[in-house]
Amino acid sequence: MIVSYPTGHLSDVSASPSADLLEIALVNMDRLALQRIYSASGLTPLFFCEQFITPALVGIGEKWDRGELSLSHVYMSGRLCEDFMEQSFRGAPLSRASEERVALAVLEDYHLLGKRLVGFVLRGGGVDYLDYGTVTAAELVRRVQEDSVRVLLISALMLPSALKVREVRDKLDQAGVTCRIIVGGAPFRLDPSLCDEVGADFCCANASQVLPALKQVSGGEP
User: Fold this and answer.
1) Which of the chain's ends, N or C, has fewer CB atoms near its CB within 10 Å?
2) 3-state secondary structure of 185
3) Are 62 and 92 in contact (CB under 8 A)?
4) Highest-scoring range by mean pLDDT, 21-35, 43-57, 131-145
5) Given pLDDT bands bounded at 50, 70 and 90, which one contains residue 221?
6) What residues does 204 pair with on adjacent strands?
7) What span, in angstroms and rounded, lies between the C-alpha atoms of 185 and 195?
8) Distance of CA 86 to CAs 16, 122, 162, 216, Å?
9) Quick one: what percent of the chain has pLDDT higher than 90?
C-alpha cells in the first residue's frame, strides 16, 4: 500500500534537520525544504550527501521494496538529489587527484546511488573519468583494455556484485593489463577482508575517501 507523507512541518527545518525529514521532503518533491535542510545541517555538500541524502534515498528504496512507495517516488527523489549535487559541485576548484585514465563502473548491480556519489566527488575534484555504468565483468575488462584505463573504481551495494570484482581482477591479470582497482560499498564495509579476497588494491569506506585513494594508488601522498 502506498503511504502518504505529511508536509506541513517542512516549513521549519532549522531546529532539527535530519535524514528522516529529508526523506519526507524528497518524496514530496520539495526542493525548498531540501535547500533548507542542507543549510540547517551546516555540512559541506559531500558530507551532507553522505550523512543525509544517502540514508534518505536508502529509506525511500526500502519503502519501495515493501510496496509503500511507487517507482516514480524513487526515480524523482533520485533526480532531485542529482540536481542538488550538480549545483553544489558546479564551479568547484580543480585539484587533480590523478593524471592517469580513470573509469567508474558497477558490476551487474542496478543500485547506482554509490556510483553517483563517487561521480560527484570525482567531478568536484576535477578528475576526468569514464563512466561505464552497469556492465558485466567481461565487458568491463574489454573496455578497460580498449580505453587504456589505469585506475578502475568499482562501486557495489550487493555482495554478488562485489564478488565479481575477483573475475575482473583475474581477467585483467591474465591479459597482462596493469590496472589498479579501487572498490567501495556496503559489502566491503561489512567485511573488510573482502577487498583482499577479490584482489582489489584499495577499499574506500565512503565516497569522501575516493580522492585520497586515487592519489595513493597513483603514487602520490595518501
Assistant:
1) N
2) strand
3) no
4) 131-145
5) very low
6) 184
7) 11
8) 25, 12, 27, 26
9) 35
Nearest to 38 by CA among 6, 7, 79, 84: 84
DSSP per-residue string spanning 20-47: HHHHHHHHTT-HHHHHHHHHHHT--HHH
d(CA 71, CA 55): 17
pLDDT band at 11 (very low <50, low <70, confident <90, very high): low
Residue 137 Cα distances to 29, 41, 134, 214, angstroms = 36, 39, 10, 22
- What mean pLDDT is predicted for residues 151-177? 93
Model pTM score: 0.68
Opening angle at CA 85, ends 69 and 83, nearest 5: 60
pLDDT of residue 172: 96
Please spell the DSSP secondary structure of 100-131, one letter per residue: S-EEEEEES----HHHHHHHHHHHHTT--EEE
Largest CA distance in the chain: 60
The residue ranking higher by pLDDT, 110 or 85, is: 85
Other Cβ atoms closer than 10 A to 51: 16
Distance CA 146, CA 148 (A): 6
